[in-house]
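Z., the sequence and structure:
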Amino acid sequence: MRIILIISSVIILIVFSKYKFLRNYQIEDIKIINNKYLSEDKILSKISLNNKNFFSLNLKNIGNQVLSIGEVQSVRLEKRFNGDIYLFIEEKQPISFWIKEDKKYLIDNEGQILEMKKSFFNNLLIVKGEDANIKASRIIEKINIFPKIKVNLSYLEFESKYRWNLYFKENIIVKLPYKDIEKALNFLSYFLMNKDFNLNKFKVIDMRVNGRVFLR
């Protein structure tokens, strides 16, 4: 997480800060920029200004307050000479949905749950299983290399806390190996693109043994 602080018109502020009317200069407004999924109300509700004086206001404290929101990746703050504070927000990006105990959560690449409106992310893959949220980023990164696989997936399940099963929309289960996952996915992608191979004839494609494929 990052906080970047910028004070605009620095020279003007130094010159005129000696005057009493500027020393009493108050913050006029806080403006939220770049937020796409988080509401302004949620961000502003985290900000507490004990001191609204333009010169003595602690921007770092404001930044830390904003970063306490789990969905914020970083924030850049600017003081403007008109009395406004600008907060440029970088939001965390969800990578998938995680199904746990019949509830559906958005998660980031570290497996943390994000409180964002789910309808924004209908195209994300779904993962299931214990610790699937923690392990999801690696498998999703690899699947994104193979669009033919991704477009046909229904969901992914983390099996026995060490490997993945892929569940396809055609009710086909693909059991991936623990190691060499990318190699297995490459082989699977070849199957899906091969028009002479009717994948729908099978219900299970077992690739748990490296270098071998069992169809049934």
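The mean pLDDT is 86. DSSP finds seven helices and 13 strands in the chain.

Let me know what you think.
H.
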